[in-house]
């Protein structure tokens, strides 16, 4: 038992499961603005137990390319932003997201007990369970005599699953001047492994414009945009290596069999492990779009960018991980970390120069699938872990 045991018990006793049940009843897919509005209101009501100034913040409109190659502005859901004790000596950032990958009408829309202590459902692990843990830890902190030493900002955004394009400015502003950050993505493994280094991530849409022609009478007069898109997809895919993952994900375009297609849109995700790899990826895109355009006599317009910079473990981040590990050991929890191929808002926080541990959420698994599950006993475990980390930071760790 630590000297903070009463406060840790406070965190463990929070109604986390009840909150998860209420929140997971709301479909909050990243494009479901009505569901996200409902979810934002529920979170604002729940987090209102904390002191400070709470607001629901509109995201900046974001330009996206549709299947026809047109660029239009898309609105995303509101973020919840809470600021508590901005003049306290220790300033922290805590982040999470309310959106899921499950769109309205998805048949994965209810909770079910998979086994004793194992709850399945949309967002139970990623990351409505994490939001419940965050709230429990902050509520417990407020009951501690050390609370006055810590100020914090909380950002819960509504577009993390699509790369946080609308909320990135809010996260960057909230990160400024912070000593450390905690993000409540689920643990990387059911055993509780944390994610350490992460690659960056860039999403690109390539609009290819060729020339239509009759496929039988004069195909030589056409410029096949679909073939050019396929050529570009193969070239990018073949350039992948240990430092750069490339995933051509979709081609929109084509039409009747007797028409040479004049338009296509290729979607690609690229994940560079380092800033050098990111620079190589940018050069690759420029080089191959020019080569494919010249070979097929088509015009290619690229839209998108690297919204998640690579996240390395620098000495400050390593010290924060070690603090989390030591707090886990004090609670009888074995905490380790390893590189991950996934990305999250932790990438953006680290890019702002702030040490961050971004898998402080629940233990569970199968996220982004209909098999997603939460290990319920991890709610109390992780709430106590976060609370102890906050208390140790307040003490000067």
TrEMBL record:
The active site is at residues 99, 160. It holds the Pfam family M20_dimer. SUPFAM superfamilies: Bacterial exopeptidase dimerisation domain, Zn-dependent exopeptidases. GO terms for molecular function: carboxypeptidase activity; metal ion binding. Keywords: Carboxypeptidase, Hydrolase, Metal-binding, Protease, Zinc. Residues 197-291 form the Peptidase M20 dimerisation domain. The keyword Protease applies. Its cofactor is Zn(2+). Gene3D superfamilies: 3.30.70.360, Zn peptidases. It comes from the Bacteria. The keyword rRNA-binding does not apply. This is Glutamate carboxypeptidase. It comes from Sphingomonas jatrophae. The lineage of its organism: Bacteria, Pseudomonadati, Pseudomonadota, Alphaproteobacteria, Sphingomonadales.
């Amino acid at each position: 038992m630590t000297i903070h045991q009463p406060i840790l018990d406070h965190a463990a006793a929070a109604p986390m499961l009840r909150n998860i049940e209420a929140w997971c009843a709301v479909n909050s897919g990243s494009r479901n603005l009505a569901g996200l509005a409902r979810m934002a209101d529920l979170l604002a009501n729940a987090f209102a137990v904390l002191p400070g100034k709470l607001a629901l913040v509109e995201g900046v409109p974001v330009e996206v390319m549709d299947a026809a190659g047109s660029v239009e502005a898309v609105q995303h859901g509101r973020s919840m932003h809470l600021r508590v004790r901005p003049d306290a000596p220790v300033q922290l950032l805590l982040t999470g997201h309310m959106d899921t990958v499950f769109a309205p009408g998805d048949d994965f829309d209810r909770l079910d007990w998979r086994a004793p202590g194992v709850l399945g459902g949309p967002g139970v692990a990623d990351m409505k369970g994490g939001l419940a843990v965050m709230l429990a830890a902050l509520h417990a902190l407020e009951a501690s005599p050390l609370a006055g030493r810590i100020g914090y900002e909380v950002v819960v955004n509504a577009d993390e699953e699509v790369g946080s394009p609308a909320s990135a400015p809010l996260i960057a502003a909230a990160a400024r001047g912070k000593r450390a950050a905690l993000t409540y993505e689920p643990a990387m493994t059911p055993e509780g492994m944390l994610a350490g280094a992460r690659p960056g991530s860039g999403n690109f849409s390539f609009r290819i414009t060729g020339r239509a022609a009759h496929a039988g009478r004069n195909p030589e007069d056409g410029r096949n945009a679909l073939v050019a898109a396929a050529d570009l997809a193969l070239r990018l895919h073949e350039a992948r290596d240990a430092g750069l993952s490339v995933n051509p994900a979709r081609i929109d375009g084509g039409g009747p069999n007797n028409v040479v297609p004049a338009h296509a849109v290729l979607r690609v995700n690229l994940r560079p492990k380092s800033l050098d790899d990111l620079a190589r990826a940018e050069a690759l895109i420029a080089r191959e779009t020019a080569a494919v355009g010249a070979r097929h006599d088509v015009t290619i317009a690229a839209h998108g960018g690297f919204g998640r910079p690579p996240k390395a473990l620098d000495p400050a981040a390593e010290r924060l991980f070690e603090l989390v590990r030591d707090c886990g050991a004090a609670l009888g929890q074995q905490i380790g970390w390893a590189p991950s191929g996934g990305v999250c808002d932790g990438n953006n926080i680290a890019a702002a120069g702030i040490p961050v541990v971004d898998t402080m959420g629940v233990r569970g698994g199968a996220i982004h699938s209909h098999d997603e599950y939460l290990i319920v006993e991890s709610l109390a475990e992780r709430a106590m872990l976060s609370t102890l980390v906050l208390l140790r930071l307040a003490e000067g760790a």
